[in-house]
Specification:
alpha+beta, 51% helix, single chain, Butyryl-CoA Dehydrogenase, subunit A, domain 3, two-stranded antiparallel sheet, Butyryl-CoA Dehydrogenase, subunit A, domain 2, Butyryl-Coa Dehydrogenase, subunit A, domain 1, binds flavin-adenine dinucleotide, globular
Amino acid sequence: MGTDTARETTVQERLYSVADWYDAESLLTTDERRVLARLRDFLDAEAKPLLAEYWERGEFPEQLARPLIDLDLMEPAELTGPGAEGAERTPARGIYQGFRVFELARTDASLATWYTAQAGLFRTAIRVGASAEQQARWMPRVIDFSLKGVFSLTEPEHGSDIAGGLSTTARFEADPDGGTWVLDGAKRWIGGASTADVLAVFARDTADGQVKAFLVDRQAAGVSLEKIHGKTALRMMQNAHITLTGVRVPESMRLHNVNSFKDVAAMLRAMRSDVAWIATGIQAGAFEAALSYVTERQQFGRPLGSFQLVQEKLARMLGNLTASLSLVIRLTEQQASGTYRDQDSALAKMQTSLLMRETVALAREVAGGNGITLATDVARFHADAEAVYSYEGTHDINALIIGRALTGNSAFTR
Ligand code: FAD
């Protein structure tokens, strides 16, 4: 009862007092804002107190996983209809999904990345790659997290050039049960793999040379996972190096709508939009932490925030954040109307990440020496931003996608 009243209060007020300068949250319905307020309450009460400690330990706070899943954020019942047996449920709107990522990233980039590994990457792999029959079988379990999955595309020797370079192989062996695929190769950087049920693995068919996708049981014979240690960004998020040696996958576990890298590119288009929302949310978190710091900290007998040079930095941070938010909202509208192209999400990912890098650096700067300690929050955003800047297509690769669309000339060398 007490908690419900607190949520109502939050919904009556604006969710973002300063960080959302142009009141973008007015695009959300009251029900959507209520769900986001529920997430906000949880993050403030349960997650925030753990972040600095777990970041330093380089571990994910697993105790947050189940409660976060139980918040029913992916397709919340109150946004998608009654869900009566057999009834069609309307998917949650893109703008809600964007703000959900924004809210998570505003608290912590690893939490946002952990959530989007399932709600963005894996769900997109199933939505784009699975046949209608496979989707009917798997999607409800993806949405309620009872089938946890990850997106395994990048390889140790192939990151930016994965489209042409992908070297993990899939060899088909016919048998009376519809056939079996044998996978060999390695994957790198795969987020959330150690706790997943299945790995969506992209591999090149030795017969036709095309990229195909497979749901591989994480515990299958021939699969081995190794944690990537020593990261200086997204330390809470667990990333794995995966080795696949003669891993056998039944044909029924191949994603039937993935027949070439073009189908993978359609997935990346959707994922880059999520990352642009993450890059925007990180700016909100860093900006708010910096604003709070300069309001409290005094030098020369006055709050830091009263100095002109500090105010200029605050204004730049807010400008970057507001530009990013405007960009992702427009992209989300384009997505909803089905008109967005590769270059549109590439532009959003590239530009929000670029602005994020400046915003977190300014936030760190105005916090002075304390800005490099975990105590002020800005240090965590500053460090984590580097991973977001590079994953889902680096700055350069997204720029080349845009450049190709602008000029008609591909500058990729293969
Ligand atoms: P490289 O491709 O080696 O690039 C190095 C540098 O060279 C970059 O600056 C790049 O822009 C530049 N460069 C490369 N080619 C060109 C060119 N033609 N012109 C100009 N410059 C160029 N992958 C997954 O599949 N699943 C995941 O869950 C996942 N999670 C990740 C989580 C984290 C924290 C990180 C860091 C990465 C993750 N990745 C994941 C991989 C990520 O997508 C790759 O790191 C990214 O695509 C870049 O590849 P790379 O690291 O091999 O860099």
